[in-house]
Input
Amino acid sequence: HHSGGPWQPFGSRAKYRLGDLLFRECQMPGAQIDELMDVWAAMPGHQGPPLFANHQDLYKTIDAVSEGGAPWECLSVSHVDADTLPADDPSVPTWMRDTHEVWFHCPESLLDQQISNPIFDGHMDYVPRQVFGDQHQRIWSDFMTGNWAWTQCNELAEDPENHGAMFVPIILGSDKTTVSVATGNNEYYPLYISTGNVHMERL
Output
């Protein structure tokens, strides 16, 4: 393990959360990050430097995140009729003519790393579970508390060869996002992947 634990290269959960807030959630421009850190450093009674010296320090820390065993890969895709579309037809949308890059990690490697990551120790279900409240009412929270996971495992358990195996459902989600930090308002369509075993508060 690194000296900073699971939050490397940030070194602490607080620094990671601040970086995630500024870069991903707020997409704060670099000049505003610099101003925020200056205000932070000048606050009365504040001791020590802010968590990031400036936006370059934040970006450098993000770039130092280890890729682990799942490096980035890239493939190019285009519409099946892209080569035969008339070039002067204004009714044809540009995306049908363009070639698009798809950057991805190997899904199997990502999921393997998630399951084996010690940060999820105690925050993962290895079998489905049914949760009930004080009034015996059913409580649904994490994915593995749902009826579907329970039913699937019952069906899989009918085959003796599955006994002792771990049920790992895969959850995928996608949504368009506009990334404005250092990219010029480019549109991306990220595809998120996770196992259904990890508790919601860890995602």
